[in-house]
């Protein structure tokens, strides 16, 4: 089963961390990727730019509108993801707990089963 491990980022929390803690997170992501690559459960990962760099195309029932954004009230946003393939939801939870963000109060990983996967190399 494929699972998307979505990193929910709060930039204020990250900005408040001391530089050495930020480095531990970055190094921890490298260790995490090596662990899931070695286990054969890793498919891919992507880091995403902040929402301020986004453009939104919205359905209107006619011609779609294009705006900057999104402009959200929430402080958390999808900062990136890992796509993994593992045997169960329980294993996906175990893997998500290895992501260093889970050690920082206010950051989280959303685990969502993939319903359909298609790609050039998948």
Automatic annotation (TrEMBL):
Pfam families associated with the record: YCII (PF03795)
Record domain YCII-related: where: 1-106
Domain of life assignment: Bacteria
InterPro entries to which the protein is assigned, alphabetical: Dimeric_a/b-barrel, YCII
UniProt record similarity statement: Belongs to the YciI family.
Protein name, UniProt field: YCII-related domain-containing protein
Gene3D superfamilies associated with the record: Dimeric alpha+beta barrel
């Amino acid at each position: 089963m494929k699972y998307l491990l979505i990193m929910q980022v709060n930039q204020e929390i990250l900005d408040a961390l001391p530089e050495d803690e930020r480095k531990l997170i970055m190094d921890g992501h490298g260790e995490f990727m090596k662990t899931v690559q070695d286990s054969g459960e890793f498919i891919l990962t992507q880091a995403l730019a902040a929402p301020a760099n986004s453009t939104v195309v919205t359905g209107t029932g006619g011609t779609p509108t294009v705006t900057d954004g999104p402009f959200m009230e929430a402080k958390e946003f999808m900062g990136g993801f890992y796509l993994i393939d593992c045997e169960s939801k329980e294993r996906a939870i175990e893997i998500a707990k290895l992501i260093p963000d889970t050690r920082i109060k206010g950051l989280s990983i959303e685990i969502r089963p993939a319903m359909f996967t298609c790609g050039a190399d998948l």
